[in-house]
């Protein structure tokens, strides 16, 4: 699997891309593959404050439910509404159309501390 | 996480890994949980034909002049009703009436019985049956002698028939025959854990790979696919078949688990009979019942069930039901409310979500 070069990654298999002070957050290809057929995505409301490392929602597949952890702190400015009716998009395009939320970040340093793609790929390789 | 003791492997382990299956630790066994995807595999079994490696299941063989007496004493169903070549579902109970395991009993002959038991219970089952053996017969731990492959779905008969001269349509549901299958000696049983028609093939472990490949080849035109434990679970849940450790266990009796039909009180004495009679006399306090989610969410295993806002029971299994397009589950409720049509709530991640009890099974195959 090709993981985007410009994303940063967490050990809990979230990804973040950053443009200015707006971060887009999603779950990785590996995460959706581990979960299998996704049936629900629970996301916070616009305006919610995220604290890095804390659960901000969940993704549920036929076989299990899994928390999603904030990879970065900030305020939620947008959520991906399309996932409510089409959660299966997360299986199809986790790094693209099936992003989860956009966040106005408090501290861009947090982004730099996340795993770059090479680290994440070896992390996923070691895990599987 | 530290590495646990080495996982046990079925003879098909490398075949699964080579096909890209996702493997999980299932009760100490390294088993495929999915191949192409749970829902795809589920639908393939409902509409076509799927194949499962269930070689982790245990087998126990009981042979000797008094084999019948031991099996009948150790299990809840009436073994005397079985004819040669017939099988039935049964319970292996403790004296206190809880389950040691749920099992299939096959009558090979008057002096030979073949039990199929749950993988993670097989050691316990064997010790339990041995401890009851004051009869003139031998109990053999036969798990290592068998691989087991299940071919399930409306097209299973056609596919399996390509691989044997035994006339499969003449084997009725819950009957079996010994014969040749894919060129090797096998026990061919018309049983399964999916709610579909199908066969479970028992053969020696060294033949497992060739039999598996023969089945996959024979089913190519019918679109056969391997199916994993994930699909096996959603298929059995839609058909309301119990899973040990969920619907049943050491602290649950067959009467509570809505399995009174496998308890034959009038057959004579058996382990657990006294306790069950007492329970029946006193009246049950709880019973298993099916539910469908009405609100958004899935009531999963272990979640609390609320009645009128108060904790009243727990979910034993819960999942989306791919065939039905609903979120379903089974739960224990106080006996006076353990019936279809009750409004209940399930506590999903600290939120009470509406559900309703419904008649079961959730799914029954068209006859």
What does this entry show, briefly?
The complex is a heterodimer of chains A (128) and B (367). Chain A is α+β, with helices and mostly antiparallel strands. Helices cover 24% and strands 34% of the residues of chain A.
What distinguishing features does this structure have?
heterodimer, A: alpha+beta, OB fold (Dihydrolipoamide Acetyltransferase, E2P), 6-stranded antiparallel sheet, 5 helices, B: 367 residues, alpha+beta, Gyrase A, domain 2, Alpha-Beta Plaits, Elongation Factor Tu (Ef-tu), domain 3, 6-stranded antiparallel beta barrel, 19% helix
Write the layout of secondary structure elements.
The complex is a heterodimer of chains A (128) and B (367).
Chain A: E1 8-9, E2 14-19, E3 22-27, H1 29-35, E4 38-42, E5 49-50, E6 55-61, E7 65-69, E8 74-79, H2 82-85, H3 89-92, E9 101-105, H4 109-113, H5 117-127
Antiparallel strand pairs in A: 1-2, 2-3, 3-9, 4-6, 5-8, 6-7, 8-9
Chain B: H1 13-18, E1 22-26, E2 29-34, H2 38-47, E3 50-53, E4 58-63, H3 67-74, E5 87-93, E6 99-109, E7 112-117, H4 122-131, E8 138-141, E9 147-152, H5 156-161, E10 176-181, E11 184-189, E12 198-203, H6 208-218, E13 225-226, H7 229-238, H8 273-282, E14 286-293, E15 304-307, E16 310-321, E17 326-334, E18 343-348, E19 351-358
Parallel strand pairs in B: 3-13
Antiparallel strand pairs in B: 1-2, 3-9, 4-7, 4-8, 5-6, 6-7, 9-12, 10-11, 11-12, 14-17, 14-19, 15-16, 15-18, 16-17, 18-19
Helix pairs in contact in B: 2-7
């Amino acid at each position: 699997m090709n993981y985007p070069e410009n994303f940063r990654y967490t050990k809990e298999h979230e990804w973040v891309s950053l443009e200015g002070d707006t971060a887009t957050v999603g779950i990785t290809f590996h995460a959706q593959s581990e979960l299998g057929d996704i049936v629900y995505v629970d996301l916070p409301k616009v305006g919610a404050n995220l604290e890095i490392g804390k659960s901000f929602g969940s993704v549920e597949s036929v076989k299990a439910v899994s928390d999603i952890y904030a990879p970065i702190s900030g305020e939620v400015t947008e959520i991906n509404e399309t996932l409510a009716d089409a959660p299966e998009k997360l299986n199809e395009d986790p790094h693209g159309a099936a992003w989860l939320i956009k966040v106005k970040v408090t501290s861009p340093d947090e982004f730099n501390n996340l795993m770059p793609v090479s680290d994440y790929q070896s992390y996923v390789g070691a895990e599987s | 996480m530290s590495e646990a003791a080495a996982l046990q492997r079925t003879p098909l382990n490398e075949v699964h890994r080579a096909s890209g299956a996702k493997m999980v630790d299932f009760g100490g066994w390294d088993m495929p949980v999915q191949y192409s995807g749970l829902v795809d595999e589920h639908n393939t079994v409902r509409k076509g034909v799927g194949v499962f490696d269930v070689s982790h299941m245990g087998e126990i063989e009981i042979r000797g002049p008094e084999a019948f007496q031991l099996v009948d004493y150790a299990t809840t169903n009436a073994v005397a009703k079985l004819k040669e070549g017939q099988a039935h579902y049964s319970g292996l109970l403790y004296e206190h009436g809880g389950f040691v395991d749920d099992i299939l009993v096959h009558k090979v002959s008057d002096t030979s019985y073949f039990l199929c038991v749950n993988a993670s219970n097989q050691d316990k089952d064997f010790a339990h049956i041995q401890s009851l053996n004051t009869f003139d017969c031998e109990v053999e731990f036969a798990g290592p002698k068998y691989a087991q492959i299940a071919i399930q779905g409306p097209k299973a008969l056609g596919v399996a028939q390509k691989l044997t001269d035994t006339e499969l349509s003449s084997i009725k549901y819950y009957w079996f025959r010994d014969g040749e299958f894919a060129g090797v000696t096998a026990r061919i049983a018309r049983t399964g854990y999916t709610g579909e028609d199908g066969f479970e093939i028992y053969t020696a472990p060294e033949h497992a790979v060739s039999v598996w490949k023969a089945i996959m080849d024979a089913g190519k035109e019918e679109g056969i696919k391997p199916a994993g434990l994930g699909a096996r679970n959603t298929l059995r849940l839609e058909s309301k078949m119990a899973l040990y450790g969920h619907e049943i266990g050491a602290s649950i009796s067959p009467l509570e688990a809505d399995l009174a039909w496998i308890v034959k009180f009038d057959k004579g004495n058996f382990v657990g009979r006294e306790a069950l009679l007492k329970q029946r006399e006193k009246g049950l306090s709880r019973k298993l019942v099916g539910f469908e989610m009405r609100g958004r969410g899935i009531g999963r295993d272990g979640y609390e069930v609320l009645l009128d806002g108060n904790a009243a029971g727990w979910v034993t299994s819960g999942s989306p039901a791919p065939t039905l397009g609903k979120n379903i589950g089974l739960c224990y409720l106080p006996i006076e409310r353990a019936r279809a049509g009750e409004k209940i709530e399930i506590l999903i991640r600290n939120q009470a979500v509406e559900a309703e009890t419904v008649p079961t099974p959730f799914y029954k195959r068209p006859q």
